Amino acid sequence: MKKQDKRTSEYKQWKKEQESKGLGDVVEAITKATGIKAIVDAVTEDCGCNDRKKNWNKIRLFKKNLVPRCLTDDEKSEWKLFRENQEWKIEGIKLFDADINYIWSTYQSAFNVSVSKPCTNCSPAPLIYMIEDIDKLYKESIS
Fold first, then answer.
1. Number of other CB atoms surrounding residue 49 within 10 Å
2. What distance in Å separates the CA atoms of residue 56 and residue 48, rounded to the nearest whole number?
3. In a 3-state reduction of DSSP, which class is residue 5?
4. Which of 32, 70, 122, 128 is 20 to 30 A from 104 via CA?
5. How far apart are CA 118 and CA 127, in angstroms?
6. Rounded Cα distance, 83 and 140, in Å
7. What's the burial of 59, exposed, middle or buried (CB within 10 Å: 0-12/13-18/19+)?
8. pLDDT, tens digit, for every residue of 125-138?
9. What CA–CA distance (Å, rounded) separates 61 from 132?
């Protein structure tokens, strides 16, 4: 790309298009960069990735106006127990469907958002973001 004048409307439009629009765009970029998207596309005609991308772009992880509610005492206890009982590995996470459902429902409830259930076949990134956000909320609630 040739160097553009940052004051022009063309540059501003180009810059806006380059910015991530949400979690779905981030996951898509990661799966393209790692070659996962090409493999999935070669194996199946439609795995639902486009629908998930649209729904995941609704996740407001990257927006500053996402205001979570405080975790209840029961939620704090459950999250602490959940995190202590998981076999977290350096190279990745291993979760069962019940774990995914728990993370997903806890995230939606605590952050008052409606998001699609993450698909670990595409990428674990949405789950990792949800876990990190709930961890932050948990740590803030016990301090």
1. 21
2. 12
3. coil
4. 32
5. 7
6. 16
7. buried
8. 788 888 888 998 99
9. 10
Residue type at 52 in one-letter notation? R
Which tokens hold the place of 129? Answer: 């973001």
Q: Is the pTM of this model over 0.70?
A: no
pLDDT, tens only, 68-101: 888 999 999 999 998 887 765 444 566 778 888 9
3-state SS string over 18-68?
HCCCCHHHHHHHHHHHHCHHHHHHHHCCCCCHHHHHHHHCCCCCCCCCCCC
Nearest to 105 by CA among 62, 137, 134: 134
Helix 23-34 vs helix 49-56: crossing angle, to nearest 10:
140
- Which two structure tokens, joined as six digits, stand for 24? 């779905």
| Nearest residue to 75 via CA among 38, 120, 123, 109 | 109
